Structures are given as structure tokens and as C-alpha cells.
Amino acid sequence: MRAVPREEQIRLVGEELGWTVENAGQSTQVLTACRAWALHADGRFRSKRDAAEWALRRSAPPVVAEVLADHREARESSPDPRAVAAFVASVRARLAHK
């Protein structure tokens, strides 16, 4: 198994986030953005739930707490699309600053 260079990890997680924005629901976009942010911050790949919990410990916006609570309870989630877009944009900006 080869080690994946950090630059490639960041590129791949950015592509995953882009695909998610184009093809998945709002809550999945939030959780995927959390995963991308966490990987960018410390190089650890986490489950979406673990990444959301990580993000909440780092002052993530309220939309993350809302989506995580719904995810934990297996409830349908309907986060504010503007809040989702703002959070995703903030994570994309982080990814751009390697």
C-alpha cells in the first residue's frame, strides 16, 4: 500500500466535496465538508459523524450541530440551504490554502 501525499489527499477530498455538492442532499454536503475540513486540518480521515463532532469542537456553524443531531437520531434533515452553502464555501476556501 502506498502512502498518499498530502496534496493528493486534499485534492481528492476537494473532488469528493464537489461531487457531493452536485449530487447529494444538504445534510450530506455538511457532513462531507466536515470530513474535508478535518482531513485538511490534521491529515486524519474520519467518518462523517466523527468529522462533524470534530468540527463542533472547533466552532463550526450551527448548521453542523443541526445536521449531526438529525444524523444521530436517523431523522430527515432539512438544513437552511444558505447556511449549507456558506459552510461548504468556507471549507472550500480552507482547502484552497494548502
Write the layout of secondary structure elements.
Elements: H1 6-23, H2 26-42, H3 48-56, H4 62-72, H5 81-96
Q: Which radius of gyration do the C-alpha atoms yield?
A: 13 Å
H/E element string? HHHHH
Give a short account of the largest sheet. Answer: none
Counted up, domains total 1
Uncertain regions spanning at least 5 consecutive residues? none
- How many H/I helical runs? 5
Total E-strand runs:
0
Annotation keywords:
globular, mainly alpha, 98 residues
Short account of what is shown:
72% of the residues lie in helices and 0% in strands. It has 98 residues and is mainly alpha-helical.
Describe this structure in words.
The chain is mostly helical. It contains 5 helices and no strands. It has one domain (6-96). Helix 1 (6-23) packs antiparallel against helix 2, helix 2 (26-42) crosses helix 4 (62-72) and helix 3 (48-56) packs antiparallel against helix 4 (62-72).
